[in-house]
Amino acid sequence: MHRENLSLLFQTLPENVTLVAVSKFHSKEKIMEAYSMGQRIFAESRVQELLLKQAELSKDICWHMIGHLQTNKVRSIVPFISLIQSVDSRHLLECIDREAKMVQRRISCLLEVSVTGEKNKTGWDAENLLEYARAGEWKNLQNIEFSGLMGMATLTDDETLIRKDFKRIHDVFIELKDSFGAQFKTLSMGMTDDYHIALSEGSNMVRIGSFIFGPREY
Ligand SMILES: *Cc1c(COP(=O)(O)O)cnc(C)c1O
Asked: pTM here?
C-alpha cells in the first residue's frame, strides 16, 4: 500500500473527478488502510471476491463492479452494488433490470465500450451501442440508471494511440448523452499507467489499482 500515492491522488485529482480504488487481488487490510485515509469507493473485478470483501468490511464502502459480469451472478450483487461499470450487453442490462426490480432498487450502470479492436476485450462495439441508445427500447428498463460510459485504451506504450482511443471513447460518450439525457454524466477512463492522458481527454472517473496498492498478488 502506497499511502503517499493515495495522498497525491487526493491532492491532485480535479474536484469533478471521482477516484475509484481498484482493490482486486488486494487484501482487506490494504483496503481498510485506504479507507482510514478517507477513500470510500472500491472496485472489484470478480464477484466471489467482491462478495467476501463486502460482507466483512465497513458497510459505508461504495462497491463498484468492473469485471465481466455473468448474468447468473447478478442476483448476488444487486442488493448492495453502487455502480456496475462493466455492462457489456443488452442481455446483461435486461437481467440487471429484472433483479433490481425484485429488490426494489434502481441500479446505476456504465455501459462498457470497446474501441481498441483487441480480440480478448469485452464491451459493446461503438456502432451497436449508439444504435441501441437511439432505438430507445432501453426506456423500458426502469430499474436501471444509465449513468455513463466506461472504456479502456489499447495496452501499449504508444501515447498517441492511447490518446486516440480515449478521444474516440469521449466522442461516443457525447453522442450517447443525446439519447440518454441528463442521467448520463460519468465517463470512466484511465488506470494507473494512463490516467493522466484520460483526464486530459475528458474523463471524470479514474480506476486506479497498482499505483495505490502496489503490484497485485495473484
Ligand atoms: C484492474 C483494472 C483497473 C486498474 O488497473 P491498474 O493498472 O492497477 O490501475 C482498472 N480498470 C479495470 C477495468 C481493471 O480491470
From this structure: 0.97
User: Locate cell 442481455: which residue?
Assistant: 91
Please, which residues have CB within 8 angstroms of residue 4's CB and are 6 or more apart in sequence?
none
Whole-number pLDDT of residue 147 = 98
CA-nearest residue for atom 4, ligand 1, is 209
Ligand 1 centre distance from Cα of residue 136 (Å): 31
Radius of gyration of the chain (CA): 17
- Closest residue CA from atom 14 of ligand 1: 66
- Protein residue whose Cα sits closest to atom 12 of ligand 1: 66
In the structure, what pLDDT confidence band is assigned to residue 217 with cuts at 50, 70 and 90? confident
Determine the pLDDT at residue 205. Answer: 98
Ligand 1 site-directed mutation target among 19, 22, 149, 218, most atoms within 8 Å of CB: 22
**Cell numbers given for 169:** 471513447
CA distance from start to end of the chain: 16
- Helix ranges (DSSP H) in the chain: 3-12, 28-36, 47-56, 74-77, 90-102, 126-135, 159-180, 195-200, 210-213
Distance of CA 66 to the CA centre of its chain: 5
**By 3-state DSSP, what share of the chain in percent is helix, strand and coil, each rounded to 5?**
45, 20, 35
The residue type of 61 is I
Q: Ligand 1 atom 11: the closest Cα is on which residue? A: 207
Torsion of CA 202, 184, 64, 169, to 10 degrees: -40
